[in-house]
């Protein structure tokens, strides 16, 4: 007989760590958490400025898309965290919830007023309080303990240009320009592994197994009752007497459902997978926030990369202060590119260095980056299997700019960023354009630039969406004992960074699970 737990949680990322904590609060519930990666033991997983150095390492799933016709045939690299804490252990730590309009368009039970209590329950904000913020949750949120002068200058110039100043993107109004708050504690990354998992790992009823790649969810007589995984060269099966909770994210969750026979029947049969439940929506509705940066050479200032020195590392280790406490994308904004929109359609991330190609290119000169990020995404893609082998990466097609409105919006945002760059006080620090190289780019220049430089903003969602794949309690249609709890259940991507919304979903899911037990 296989070892049996009450709950088996698949994936120790942003959602899985929350569930492991909340479900094991009941000392009588036996909880198993399975993670394909290892511990979050890299120094870079805790130093805010170093997040991109984890890309394409053993801490990364290292996904890539299929060729994107609207990106000149390029395949876009998609980093995804493969360690305790998942993406919360290697993201840029920006704490953004999204706009009220996002959730008010979600199904009943997930509207803004429904989910706000879960945001505040999770949050421990060191500065903000009141209706919109929590001050005693496990997730530390703070003002960054280092901000470069270029980030301050950009915010001042954006306000001079015409944006509203804001010191809270998560309050009553999202729109405006300001400095981002981050999920850090005392200048150090505070992932869900720190916030939720480690405090729970002392509980006797919680078992955590790393390096455990789940191959299949086993469904018998319409009920998901066991999980098969490989670990250290062995195949292991464990049972779940109450529920299995799939928290693999927008890539790995639909992949595992399809490997388990849950998904579009024709596609599964083509790969020789027995169909357990014909759910055509699995893998559909894939969308992401595309980001396209503008870059400049700078003068009379410093570059963040050059400030990361051994001496400053010692300072950060001692006090959590100095340039290593920077999250790189220090400041930004939300704004409308045209009148009549219910909420902003663009987000900006600015960095006091040259950050492009996911930060994988070492800056050769001192520079500054302003990245346009489309947050009202019209294009939809899909995810499918390459093989019935769980070790094969899936086919990922976000269909960037398939809806021409998305590209038009990005070009309009580029024009705004160019105008801000010519506005004081930022203008005096910018020595000239780096990418695109043209001083006054034409419409065609900007379109070519966007196609050449667009990358993910690391926010894929929607592939197990509420409605088509799961119900509003996140239970998989036609399968008992199985829920999906992660960004894949979002019917539409929120306007902003998706880590906080994923944590919110898991907090609410924990209540849903406990109330049905």
Automatic annotation (TrEMBL):
Cofactor(s) for this UniProt protein: FAD
SUPFAM superfamilies: FAD-linked reductases, C-terminal domain, FAD/NAD(P)-binding domain
Occurrences of domain Glucose-methanol-choline oxidoreductase N-terminal (ranges): 249-263
Keyword Flavoprotein found: yes
Pfam family, one: GMC_oxred_N
InterPro entries the UniProt entry points to: FAD/NAD-bd_sf, GMC_OxRdtase, GMC_OxRdtase_N, GMC_OxRtase_C
Key words of the record: FAD, Flavoprotein
Record-stated family: Belongs to the GMC oxidoreductase family.
Name of the protein in its database record: GMC family oxidoreductase
């Amino acid at each position: 007989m296989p070892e049996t737990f009450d709950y088996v949680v698949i994936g120790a990322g942003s959602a899985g760590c929350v569930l492991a904590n909340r479900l094991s609060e009941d000392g009588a519930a036996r909880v198993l958490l399975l993670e394909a990666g290892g511990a979050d033991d890299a120094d870079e997983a805790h130093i805010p400025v170093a997040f991109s150095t984890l890309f394409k390492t053993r801490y990364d799933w290292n996904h890539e898309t299929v060729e994107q016709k609207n990106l000149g045939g390029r395949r876009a690299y998609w980093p995804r965290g493969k360690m305790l804490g998942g993406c919360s252990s290697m993201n840029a730590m920006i704490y953004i919830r999204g706009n009220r309009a996002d959730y008010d368009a979600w199904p009943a039970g997930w509207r803004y007023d429904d989910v706000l209590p879960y945001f505040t329950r999770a949050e421990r904000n060191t500065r903000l309080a009141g209706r919109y913020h929590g001050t005693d949750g496990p997730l530390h949120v703070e003002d960054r303990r280092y901000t470069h002068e270029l980030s301050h200058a950009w915010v001042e110039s954006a306000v001079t240009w015409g944006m509203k100043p804001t010191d809270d993107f998560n309050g009553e109004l999202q729109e405006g320009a300001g400095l981002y708050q981050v999920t850090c504690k005392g200048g150090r990354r505070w992932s869900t592994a720190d916030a939720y998992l480690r405090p729970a790992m002392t509980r006797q009823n919680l078992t955590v197994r790393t390096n455990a790649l789940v191959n299949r969810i086993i469904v018998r007589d319409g009920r998901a009752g066991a999980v098969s995984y490989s670990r250290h060269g062995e195949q292991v099966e464990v049972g779940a007497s109450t529920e299995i909770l799939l928290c693999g994210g927008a890539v790995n969750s639909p992949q595992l459902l399809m490997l388990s026979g849950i998904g579009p029947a024709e596609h599964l049969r083509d790969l020789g997978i027995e169909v357990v439940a014909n759910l055509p929506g699995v893998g559909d509705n894939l969308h992401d926030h595309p980001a396209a940066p503008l870059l400049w050479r700078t003068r009379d200032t410093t570059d963040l990369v050059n400030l990361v020195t051994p001496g400053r590392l010692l300072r950060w280790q001692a006090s959590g202060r100095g340039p290593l406490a920077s999250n790189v994308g220090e400041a930004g904004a939300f704004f409308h590119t045209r009148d009549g929109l219910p909420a902003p359609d663009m987000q900006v991330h600015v960095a006091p260095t040259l950050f492009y190609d996911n930060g994988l290119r070492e800056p050769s000169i001192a520079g500054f980056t302003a990245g346009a990020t489309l947050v009202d995404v019209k294009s939809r893609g899909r995810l499918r299997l390459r093989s019935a082998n769980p070790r094969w990466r899936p086919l990922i097609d976000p269909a960037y700019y398939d809806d021409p409105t998305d590209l038009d919006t990005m070009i309009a945002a580029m024009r705004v960023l160019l105008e801000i760059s010519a506005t004081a006080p930022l203008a005096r620090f910018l020595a000239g354009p780096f990418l695109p190289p043209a001083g006054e780019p034409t419409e065609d220049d900007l379109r070519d630039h966007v196609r050449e430089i667009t990358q993910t903003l690391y926010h894929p969602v929607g592939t197990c969406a509420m409605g088509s794949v799961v119900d509003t309690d996140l239970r998989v249609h036609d399968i008992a004992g199985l829920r999906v709890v992660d960004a894949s259940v979002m019917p539409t991507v929120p306007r902003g960074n998706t880590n906080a919304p994923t944590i919110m979903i898991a907090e609410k899911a924990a209540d849903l699970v406990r109330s049905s037990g």
